Amino acid sequence: xxxxxxxxxxxxxxxxxxxxxxxxxxxxxxxxxxxxxxxxxxxxxxxxxxxxxxxxxxxxxxxxxxxxxxxxxxxxxxxxxxxxxxxxxxxxxxxxxxxxxxxxxxxxxxxxxxxxxxxxxxxxxxxxxxxxxxxxxxxxxxxxxxxxxxxxxxxxxxxxxxxxxxxxxxxxxxxxxxxxxxxxxxxxxxxxxxxxxxxxxxxxxxxxxxxxxxxxxxxxxxxxxxxxxxxxxxxxxxxxxxxxxxxxxxxxxxxxxxxxxxxxxxxxxxxxxxxxxxxxxxxxxxxxxxxxxxxxxxxxxxxxxxxxxxxxxxxxxxxxxxxxxxxxxxxxxxxxxxxxxxxxxxxxxxxxxxxxxxxxxxxxxxxxxxxxxxxxxxxxxxxxxxxxxxxxxxxxxxxxxxxxxxxxxxxxxxxxxxxxxxxxxxxxxxxxxxxxxxxxxxxxxxxxx
Length: 449
Prior knowledge:
Layout: H1 13-44, H2 47-54, H3 57-83, H4 87-114, H5 116-122, H6 127-140, H7 144-159, H8 164-187, H9 192-214, H10 232-264, H11 268-305, H12 308-335, H13 337-341, H14 348-360, H15 365-380, H16 385-404, H17 406-409, H18 413-417, H19 419-445
């Protein structure tokens, strides 16, 4: 039986932790899917094959970001219906979300496959690996419908308080993917095509396993494949919440490309240091984002139940937990930064630049964690567009402006690194101000769950 968390009654802090930890680990495992391919190709095939697969990472991340962010819409919609006791409407949202995820995944596959060469050129993939990168990317794109389906399935599971089942499903298929990769390249001496194919199969199996589990009567979702159809009302609500989040996520990716181009202009040592230091950053972000998604789901259910007071308690606990967790882990990472960087390289310059990135970015990551909770809480209230617009203008706008002006005038590593905390501070101020104004508005006008 899946573990279900009662979000409407009892203590909150322990339930938020139980909800967030598996969710954060799930995001980390999902990020490791492509990383495993890159590592195995580099170790057992060739540096060229590794470079080909690695050069597609940012493009794949941009596409997957849309699935992850859009799935927030079905998460909030189903959670709100469940909190209000509207089981029939929740069922309609579930069936709509499942079917839409497949259709959207197929659409993204078709569009991306037609634009493989322009996408790789936009990613500045070198000609020496263009052919293999196109081969790997083209096969990998076949997995998009299954990646989309899994993220929507996981979001639906989260809406009822279950983050454990999607985590277990992903762990099982991640391990299977690694074993199949090793079998293909080490046992059968096949190359990059086989690795990409096993990844597609693993994603397919992952989404199928979770779908089969969700259709069990004991799971409580009343999911029946014959009832899959698009309900216009529920689809509109899913897109109203999910589409702004998807826009925010994709623009984030593009703004980070601008920063990366600045990093790349500073030479190989800076590039290597930044790439190595980015790994613990993304893992830390996944855990912070989990607390933001906890705020979304817990507030969504309690909003449906009509309890503003409990919604506010959820926000306070999520903010305390994300700050406590991030400050503790950030301090540990910064303390051990030289030792961590030594795992990747013995070059003194690379280690020095990497340690500086730890100090300039990871030490202040708690501000980003606060932004995640502000955004997550507002989405839980069904208010998705304003926090997305604030983030786009305050984070993406500040980063692009910073790189095009100050960094352009003073091309220094420390200047480009400051783009991260400066943009976070600006965004946190605006997000926090908007959130508190929104809560005051709810109190004055009456709260509708």
